[in-house]
Write a structure and sequence with these properties.
This protein is α/β, with parallel strands linked by helices. The protein contains 13 helices and 14 strands. A five-stranded mixed sheet has the order 5-4-3-6-9, with helices on both faces. A five-stranded mixed sheet has the order 12-11-10-13-14, with helices on both faces. Strands 1-2 form a two-stranded antiparallel sheet. Strand 10 (237-243) and strand 11 (247-253) form a beta hairpin. The longest helix is centred in the last third of the chain and has 25 residues, at 324-348. The protein is globular, with a radius of gyration of 23 Å.
């Protein structure tokens, strides 16, 4: 059975410090079959349901007969269905026998994903191949962070009941570094040291739900989403930066985040990348986020940092073309953003840099200023061919998508597939 919060070491996601090794060498025919089933389903998911059976067979170096048997098995378990053409596309005319396109089954696995912010939350359901349906959006009113979590738990309980055994996990993107499962420096004081996965998992115990709840930092998950579904797809070593009230990010190798020893790497906003000396709320001094991102924009126009900083920072950007003070603030924050990116590129040596949240908005509003700061900080040998700066293509869905990938990374393994009930075992 799937555990509510904790799961066996082989099922833990990468950020839980125990990367799965289910893909290792199989020693029996049953293990080899389970290994190939997981590989094939992973390829269907990663390909977005756009690859034909023949393409998948070649990609995975499978014998044609083996691929046919595996597809039949996955279809029989309601994990996939074969379409005559990729979803949303018309099948091209080809010579020879037509081949089907394995895609998400209408009754197949669902990952519930939550983007938890200090002022709101969004909940969505993701099917295999990345198809998404938004289920809930809720603004936080005059309630505490604890009260907000209670509201999330109530909504989640209803959606778990709605999807039943189709739910293979719940992924939660949180606005805090996560260490040992806890939010260690959240944006709301009453979230300090809160284990979101434990709280949301415990609230479903009476429903008989066994799908795990997995939590990760929102900036890290936004980067994971870009590597799987966005601008960083196919980039072997990528750096992703996400700016909101602060600045976070992640280094990705082969599409997998490098989470650090305790799962809390990527707090780039708390590095002294722009030479400041002022104290930061984190306990350090001279942090990058004091000059770039929402805090940098508001400080540059002498606005207080209380309230919804993201909304007010976006207002500064929107007014930059007509208000000289806002224009100067944008220029200053954009150059600070670029300088910090250059320093990180010198340290991490990525092929490309993804930008999301306010980082993407600042870059798109003042690209010349960002590039000027970026090139000025780069080491000389990097300047002729600097890593490209790539604004997100996922927008507000980045963290949600990354949270869903967190769930599918745990499910799309031999052990994970072993938890999927046979059709006759599934409840209505």
């Amino acid at each position: 059975m799937r555990g509510n919060v904790a799961c066996p070491a082989g099922d833990r996601a990468w950020h839980d410090r125990s990367v799965r090794k289910d893909e290792g060498a199989a020693t029996t025919s049953a293990e080899l079959r389970a290994h190939n089933l997981a590989r094939l389903l992973r390829a269907v998911h990663d390909g977005g349901g756009q690859l034909t059976r023949a393409q998948l067979t070649r990609q995975l170096s499978l014998a044609r007969g083996t691929a046919t048997v595996l597809v039949r098995d996955l279809a029989g378990r309601q994990l996939i269905e074969e379409l005559s053409s990729p979803a949303g596309l018309t099948a091209p005319r080809t010579r020879g026998r037509p081949t089907g396109v394995p895609s998400a089954h209408p009754q197949g696995p669902v990952a519930l994903a939550i983007d938890l912010r200090d002022d709101s939350f969004t909940m969505a359901a993701f099917e295999l191949t990345g198809r998404c349906t938004v289920l809930d959006r809720q603004e936080r009113e005059a309630v505490s962070g604890t009260g907000m979590l209670a509201g999330v738990a109530a909504r989640l309980k209803g959606h778990r009941r709605r999807f039943g055994d189709r739910v293979v996990g719940v992924g939660v993107a949180v606005p805090s570094p996560v260490s040992a499962g806890q939010m260690v420096q959240p944006t709301l004081p009453d979230w300090q040291d809160v284990d979101v996965a434990e709280i949301l998992g415990a609230n479903d115990g009476d429903e008989g739900s066994t799908a795990p709840v997995l939590a990760g930092n929102d900036a890290t998950l936004a980067g994971l989403a870009e590597a799987r579904r966005g601008v960083l797809r196919g980039v072997s070593v990528a750096l992703h930066l996400h700016a909101a009230t602060g600045i976070g990010g992640v280094l990705l190798s082969g599409g997998v985040p490098v989470p650090g020893a305790h799962g809390s790497a990527g707090e780039f906003g708390h590095m002294p990348l722009t030479g400041g000396t002022e104290p930061c709320r984190c306990g350090s001094v001279g942090c990058w986020e004091l000059d770039a991102g929402a805090r940098g924009l508001l400080r540059a126009v002498s606005q207080p940092e209380e309230g919804d900083r993201m909304v007010r920072a976006e207002q500064v950007i929107a007014a930059a073309a007509t208000d000289p003070g806002c224009g100067q603030a944008l220029e200053r924050a954009a150059q600070a953003l670029g300088r910090g990116i250059g320093a990180l590129v010198n340290a991490q040596d990525p092929e490309a840099v993804g930008l999301s949240g306010l980082a993407a908005e600042v870059f798109q509003a003042a690209p010349d200023a960002v590039r000027a700061g970026y090139l000025a900080t780069l080491m000389r040998f990097r300047r002729p061919e600097p890593p490209a700066l790539l604004p997100s293509t996922l927008g507000d869905f980045g963290a949600l998508t990354g949270a869903s990938e967190l769930v599918f990374d745990a499910f799309l393994t031999p052990r994970g597939l072993g938890t999927w009930p046979a059709p006759e075992e599934k409840t209505a």
